[in-house]
Amino acid sequence: MVERAQLIGENKDLIWSALKTTESFLAQKEWREVECRSCGSPFFAKSSYNLDSCGSYKCTGYEFLAEPKKKKTLSPQRLGSKISSHFISQGYQVAARLPIVNQTGSTLFTGTCGQVFDNAIFNEQEYKSSPLLAIQPVIRLQGKDLVGVTDGFSTSFVNIASEQMGASKEQHLQNLNTWLDSLSESGIYMGTISLVPVVGTPDWGGIKPTGLTLRINYLGLELGVSNYFPAIRQDSRDTLKMSDISFGLERLAWALSKTPSYFDVLGPLDRSAVEEYRKMDRIRTITLMLASHVTPSNKDRGSKLRSLAKDPSVGDKVDLELIEYYYNWWSNFIDLPASLTETVNGIRAEIYRNKNAGIQNKTGIKDIPLDIPTEEYLQQLLLRNPDIGYVKRLFLEK
Ligand SMILES: [Zn+2]
């Protein structure tokens, strides 16, 4: 397992103690310590089964896809409700949704349920220490180039998590136990789960808390992570203890359905059938951004939106059906401040702008504004150059 000598930093005693408590908790639940046959990493597996891989993608690929399929599978929405009901029955309160546009912390967008405690962590505000269950649409752009290349990645998804500020290490393990029960109840067989311990120090923009993580892997697919931070630094008060156990809801649904592609879960099927994965992902995330009142611009959030909209997969026509589909999808999980019409118009304006910019690059004519419909842009070009054949060719060239 993790050796004491490997631990560094000011909280190594606290991390060591959390690790020892975790080991004895898991031993009681009949998880044993094993080494991965491929990478040698130590991990925990159920004693009664012969799991010999840490379950990371690099060690086994998506081995879970070969497992027997369930006759009936749940949509992510239904699965989210089922997990919520389980947690509510165990006394958890449902956390209020955060807006996608993040106002506290260090990130531009809400990227994880743990941000429900940003005010406690960054502004040192009061908090309640009762355990929460959060279901939160999030945006993570780090993996954007992997989308459509390695299956299982998307730039936006629904994060479902238990969160508890002020949690002792025993309370954290109680939260983990509720999760393992809930996953079992949903149909994930515990004998196929690997729990891989890792000690890390994520950078939350100035605050770098040491945490003990268990990666929760299912035959090649990382379903989620269980994080315990025993001492988050504060200026005006004692350090904070935090339990954060989070999953990708769509990944959980994929683990259960075992459809050939992750994008079959993200739908619609008429698009995943023709493998428009990159387009589905870009439209899905842009829809969430625009519906959350992100304004396209050349900096910060607006520039991230703009960069996604420039992806060639988005195409040069507004895909109304796809935008509508994802607008409705997100509406199942969060209140969207902008209307569908505003969202469609936002995407349309970006498509015009990108097309106009492409034409501008070819003509070198800089004084026609880019933020106008492409038809109007072409008409203005015709005023400069009456050769209609030339203007039509400019439009058609990619
Ligand atoms: Zn491995």
The helix-strand sequence is HEEHHEHEEHEEEEHHHHHHHHH
Q: What's the story with the biggest beta sheet? A: 7 strands, mixed
* Fraction of residues in β-strands: 15-25%
Quaternary state reads single chain
Record the strand order, biggest sheet. 3-4-5-9-8-7-6
Q: What's the architecture of the largest domain, going by CATH?
A: 2-Layer Sandwich
Number of helices: 14
Bound chemical compounds: zinc ion
> Outline, from the CA principal axes?
elongated
- Overall residue-averaged pLDDT value: 95
> How far is it from the N-terminal to the C-terminal residue, by CA?
55 Å
Strand segment count: 9
Helix content: 25-40%
What is the CATH superfamily classification of the largest domain?
A: Bira Bifunctional Protein, Domain 2
By secondary-structure content and strand pairing, the structural class works out as alpha+beta
Kindly identify the CATH topology of the largest domain: BirA Bifunctional Protein, domain 2
- Count of all domains: 2
Structure, explained:
- The protein has helices at residues 12-28, 57-60, 76-89, 118-122, 169-186, 249-257, 263-266, 269-272, 277-291, 300-309, 320-331, 340-363, 374-384, 388-396, and strands at 31-35, 42-46, 93-94, 132-139, 156-165, 193-200, 211-218, 221-232, 240-248.
- α9 (277-291) packs across α12 (340-363).
- By secondary structure, it is an alpha+beta fold.
- 39% of the residues lie in helices and 17% in strands.
- The protein is built from 14 helices and 9 strands.
- The protein has 2 domains: 4-263, Bira Bifunctional Protein, Domain 2 (BirA Bifunctional Protein, domain 2, 2-Layer Sandwich); 267-396, no CATH class.
- Zinc ion binds next to loops.
